[in-house]
Amino acid sequence: MNAVRASFDRFAGWVTGAKHAGYSLSALRVLYGVAIVSFLFTSLADRHYLWGVASKWVDPEANRRAWFPLFELVFTKDSAFVFDLAYGVLIVLGLLFLVGWQTRFVTPVLLVFWVGLATNSTVLTNGGDTIIRITLLFLVFADLSRHWSVDAWLTKRRGRALRPILRGRFAIPAWLANAANNTAVLLCAYQIMLVYVNSGIYKLMGPEWREGTAFYYSLVLDVFRPFPALSDLAWQVGPFVWVATFLSVWVQLLFPVLILWRPTRILALGFTILMHLGIGLFLGLWPFSLAMIALDLLFVRDRSWVAVGRWAAHAGGVLRQLRPERQRTERSVTTSAGSPS
């Protein structure tokens, strides 16, 4: 009983003591912002056919889904001008989210507009927009701009933190803000584990995955071949196809177990990140790939981010020191070659 109480106290202390995953949440914000903005810009020319006034062909299917009325009011199909105005607002929100400006206010509004766009069509999905919609709800309560953001730059420039939303007697206590941030991290981590485990289970149901040939079929589908020559080159390497198929099943299925121990966590995260980069490259599903990579990064501790930053700074310092030495050597050689003998 004492052990259970001690474990609960440690967990409660972890949740309420300080905000965790600051670097990972900031990286997630950047990747989500890139995924959202790139998705909107690449769909700009066809926006009316996909979601706007010319998309009523999808209404019978879209109306079968029960959406909260607020979301259905954001994007209209009756006026092209009003739709374009909302679409432009969504792009601006995505850019503000990407650079990390006032994320406390931008994130909930972005959630409403992002879900609102999805209510106009239910057939345009690749998994990435869905996972972003789900986790954005959790991220409303997270601190997404502690690093690599305009908010962080303003905080450093002013020498003080941003003003809290509520002040005085209505101020949110620090422990509650910490708990909200860390709960969002846990819910996002649970969501990515749920996706991986379910994906692994469904893969096991298919004979192609059990036989090690599923990766081949993914590479030869005409609708998912942005670089046909590269896809053809990849599937002709038999051992690569079999290993990629095998690892895709078992790393996803065992992901919750693999992340418990640091060595296996590094291997699991390395494989899943490479897997999603491959999905983006070979299948062209970059919004999905970026969203999944962003969630994978939540399992990277802040101290690991700091260590990588120190290593990068050290490497940059070494390169800066070598550059003047190289320039001096080149000038010396040039002077020697140009001097009379």
UniProtKB/TrEMBL annotation:
Q: Entry's Pfam families?
A: HTTM (PF05090)
Which subcellular locations apply to this protein?
Endomembrane system
Q: Which GO terms describe its cellular component?
A: endomembrane system
- Stored InterPro entries: HTTM-like, HTTM_dom, Sporulation_signal_mat
Listed transmembrane segments = 21-41, 80-98, 105-124, 130-149, 170-197, 240-261, 273-295
Q: Which PANTHER family match?
A: HTTM DOMAIN-CONTAINING PROTEIN (PTHR39535:SF2), SPORULATION-DELAYING PROTEIN SDPB (PTHR39535)
In Swiss-Prot or TrEMBL terms, this protein is called Vitamin K-dependent gamma-carboxylase-like protein
